[in-house]
Specification:
alpha/beta; 26 helices
């Protein structure tokens, strides 16, 4: 970090044993390795989660590791008040130490996840409660899970267990649960038919037969299904379990139409949001696509319920200021509701459930669009300028203009004695650079620009700064590992150990090497080092290893000695010993030593 311009991705989380942890990832272009690196800068235990405390922690860390603030290009965090509050948030405070910090807005993937939750509010969490009930109902019933899979196989359906189908805080989890529940809907209906009352079984006997007929279930298989249903119906249930099954049966059988309509809507609409998240939470460098993709996402959401002629010709600024009026909205019969719901609407235009459903759809669309309009930086000068990094735009006058604007934002990181304007003119018409087509690696293409000695020094510095920018919440993935390391059962595991493990993991991952490959060396004799040396240098079969916490056999009490005379064996007083210190057995000590070695690669 002392050598290269870098960007940071910072977030805070609480471990399973209630420790507050601030994790920091860094991203930079490594000249020697010719690739963009994402590495773990540090994970620190904090006592308070407020902007002032986090600022002090970061400042102390930078001073301790001698990291210059001027090398920091951008800082990506979620958009909570503590992190990005406009007056006293952490990002505002960091500007005091790094006045040229690039404004890349907050983490857009968080915005999209929150937009999905806004959309579901229009339906009062109807499907979310169903997903949760299905998950809990199978979580502690392995026999019921087994029967569900058996029924799915009988119906020739793709088997999907609801045990991990829905987690409310996981990004776009509602979409994944909708897809799985829709695919397994017939299996759920057949399974929960056994929990219906006698009167309801008679009422829904014909629909059950229709399911069997549609999926070509023979008489033998139907008989097996009846056995499964009888076994489940005879299970002992708690009052809570009985009420939960009643709620599930209500939505699967009594309110089947409502459930199918909403599943169709979720599958269609949330897929638009899911596609965006899947693109930008990955590892590929796509900072040049942020502006265009956010604009496309917002337009796609609007097009679901707004007449196209009112939005397609608007500039990003105009879209940001757009006020939706009734005459701009599509009629209810044309609003996008997903394939199954659209078919139902066409075949049953006067159905009693259709009017309230479409009213809820319109409300959900408007709420989501207003949220996205407020949160997405549709007219961000920084993101618009970053779009000029796209090699496909090379040779266009607007691309040259935006690169000049970028250079003004990052002027403090560019060489002072170079003429960037002249380089940009030459760059726009350089025929020696390789052709770029959609789908090629942008970092690899810019590598050809970087490694033309003396030709583009200022432009190369500018591009390396921009390639370092985070565009997705990479730090989030570290927290799942944290809860596996630091929990209430692991008393000796602490944040320092987690920090060491994370540093090691990210260094090895960024270099695409194993630990053996990375630390391969030669010993003093010049011969290569291998794991076999460890075996050869270890104790021989005649040598005894003494653990530091266990008494030396020569000094232990008589009660711990074997009765050697009874076996006719005499102890050799000169038997060699190898004593291992407690430090050798400390995982924390080993990890911390490894961390010190790997810090060289990160901080340097």
């Amino acid at each position: 970090m002392r050598r290269f311009p870098f960007s940071m991705n910072v977030d805070e989380s609480t471990s399973n044993n209630n420790k507050k942890v601030l994790s920091m990832l860094v991203r930079y272009y490594h000249d020697d390795l010719r690739k963009v690196m994402v590495e773990h800068l540090g994970s620190l235990e904090i006592l308070r989660v407020d902007a002032a405390s986090l600022e002090k922690v970061l400042c102390d860390f930078f001073v301790k590791n001698n990291i210059p603030w001027q090398n920091l290009v951008s800082l990506l965090m979620d958009s909570c008040a503590v992190m990005r509050g406009s007056k006293t948030g952490l990002e505002t405070r960091i500007h005091q130490h790094c006045p040229n910090l690039l404004d890349v807005d907050g983490d857009s993937c968080h915005h999209i996840h929150n937009a999905a939750k806004k959309f579901s509010e229009g339906f009062d969490g109807y499907l979310e409660r169903l997903f949760s009930d299905l998950q809990v109902d199978h979580q502690w019933s392995p026999d019921q899970v087994m029967y569900l899979k058996e029924v799915a196989m009988i119906l020739n359906l793709p088997v999907s267990s609801p045990q991990r189908g829905f987690v409310n805080h996981r990004w776009l989890s509602a979409y994944d649960a909708s897809m799985a529940t829709h695919a397994m809907m017939p299996a759920y209906q057949v399974l929960y038919y056994g929990f219906l009352s006698t009167a309801d079984k008679e009422l829904y006997k014909e629909p059950l037969e229709s399911i069997f007929t549609k999926h070509n279930v023979n008489q033998t298989a139907r008989a097996r299904v009846e056995v499964v249903q009888d076994k489940l119906a005879k299970k002992g249930m708690t009052p809570q379990g009985r009420e939960r099954k009643k709620r599930i049966c209500q939505k699967l059988w009594h309110e089947e139409t409502t459930t199918v309509l909403q599943l169709s809507l979720y599958k269609g609409v949330l897929a638009i949001l899911k596609d965006y998240v899947m693109i930008f939470q990955g590892s590929q460098t796509l900072v040049h696509k942020l502006h265009d993709r956010q604009l496309e996402l917002f337009l796609a959401c609007l097009a679901c319920f707004v007449k196209a002629e009112h939005i397609t010709k608007l500039s990003p600024r105009a879209l940001r200021e757009l006020v939706l009026e009734d005459h701009m909205l599509l009629p209810s019969k044309d609003v996008y509701v997903g394939q199954e719901a659209d078919t139902f609407r066409s075949q049953n235009p006067k159905h009693a459930l259709l009017v309230p459903f479409l009213a809820s759809v319109r409300k959900a669309y408007i709420t989501t669009a207003v949220y996205l309009q407020k949160k997405l930086p549709l007219n961000s000068p920084t993101l618009i300028a970053l779009s000029a990094l796209d090699p496909l735009l090379r040779g266009h006058s607007q691309a040259m203009l935006q690169l000049k604007r970028l250079s003004a934002m990052l002027n403090h990181l560019l060489p002072e004695d170079q003429d960037l304007s002249r380089e940009l003119v030459q760059f726009s018409v350089d025929l020696t650079l390789p052709r770029y087509k959609e789908g090629d690696g942008m970092v690899d293409w810019w590598g050809h620009v970087f490694h033309q000695p003396g030709k583009y020094p200022a432009l190369s510095s500018l591009a390396k700064c921009c390639l370092s920018i985070f565009h997705g919440p990479r730090v989030e993935s570290s927290f799942s590992l944290m809860n596996e390391i630091i929990d209430q059962r692991s008393g000796n595991m602490n944040v320092e150990t987690f920090n060491a493990i994370q540093t090691a993991k990210y260094v090895l991952q960024s270099r695409g090497q194993t630990a053996v490959q990375m630390f391969e060396r030669s010993d003093s004799s010049g011969e290569s080092f291998s794991l076999q040396d460890v075996v050869n240098d270890g104790p021989s079969p005649e040598e005894e290893v003494v653990h530091p916490e266990r008494p030396d056999p020569g000094e232990a009490e008589e009660a711990y000695h074997s009765d050697v005379e009874a076996h006719g064996i005499a102890l050799d007083d000169d038997l060699p010993h190898i004593t291992l210190t407690s430090e050798n057995f400390s995982l924390s000590g080993l990890c911390e030593k490894l961390c010190v070695l790997l810090k060289f690669f990160t901080v340097q």
